[in-house]
Amino acid sequence: KVMQRRDFIAALGCTVAWPLAASAQQPGRVNRIGFLWENPTTFPEALEAFRQELRRRGYVEGRNLTIEFRWAEGKLDRMRELAEELVQLRVDVIMAPSSVYTAAAMQATSTIPIIFMSHADPLRTGHVASLARPGGNVTGFSLMMTETNVKSLELLKEALPDLSRVAVLFDPATPSHVPGLKAVEAAGPTLGLHIQPVAAATAADYEGAFSAMSRERAQAVLVLSTPLFIAGAKPLAYLGLKYGLPSLYGPKEHVNAGGLMSYSPDRADLWRRSVDYVDKVLTGAKPADLAVQQPTKFELVVNLKTAKAIGITIPPSFLVRADEVIE
To answer: Which residues of 266-281 are buried (b: 16+ CB within 10 A; e: fewer)?
Structure first.
């Protein structure tokens, strides 16, 4: 069962409260949104929140709005091709939720507005010039994942006080994992932790990665968030159990699949808020002038069934901080 705890709300930075835009939609005009993403079942709650907010603002699919979805379906090498399809369709704006999709969209166009909805680190990846004034044709909403990765490492140490060796699973092809890994490596010594980076570029690398962690005597795993790992939530959770390695992930989908813990900004909230920028762009605003916004809601989820299965005890003082505890 799932016990709802309390709202675990923290802000890594201030956010700007934009007024509800009066959608100056031209009568008879059909707005076209391009949406580049993994598949409809990855963060379905967030996708539904996005579509609901569009409807609330008067954008109705089939009447004055068309959403052109392009699904990568695990074939991340196709993203550039899919982004180019959206450019050829002359969509008004491209939604590219994460850093890998943003990069593909930026390769395909420098003129069509691109709005990211849950980008891990738009500044350190070079996708924007600054958070306040992004420049170019790209802006949106950030997970602030580099900072969140460090917080996740701190949480892992709190949950497992005797921890001294942590493996960090990362994808070399995910742009945000370069700054994310560097930040975790820098934070490790201050927490008394030895950090062991382990790369996985495809799902076929998972088993070998966990085997390497075990050989190097890792005591826990921090899994950096990326579409590749989200798609592999079940096999990653299985390997954590197989090798007896407590794992902390980004999105809670990993915990629902059997992972131990997750800590992440609330994606549904960010995707909902991104409609504000869709509205602004469709009514004439330039992405270069729209500041990158940061998360205000975070979720900590713990799976006690998994904790029991790998033989660890999570301190009660840690559990009371969780938004959800799966028993």
So the answer is: bbbbbbbbbbbbbbbb
Q: What is the DSSP letter of 65?
A: E
Residue 197 has a pLDDT of 97
> Which contacts (CB < 8 Å, 24+ apart) does range 10-16 have?
10/298, 11/294, 11/295, 11/296, 12/144, 12/147, 12/148, 12/294, 12/295, 13/144, 13/294, 14/294, 15/293, 15/294, 15/295, 15/296, 16/291, 16/293
Beta bridge partners of 65: 31, 61
Q: Is the dihedral of CA 277, 281, 282, 285 positive or negative?
A: positive
Pairing status of strand 2-4 against strand 324-326: antiparallel
Q: Over the stretch 31-50, which tens digit does the pLDDT of each residue have?
A: 999 999 989 988 999 999 99
Whether the per-residue pLDDT at 12 is higher than 60: the answer is: no
Is the pLDDT at 28 greater than 90? The verdict is no
Nearest to 94 by CA among 77, 72, 117: 117
**Cα-Cα end-to-end distance for the chain:** 5
Confidence at residue 316, expressed as pLDDT on a 0 to 100 scale: 95
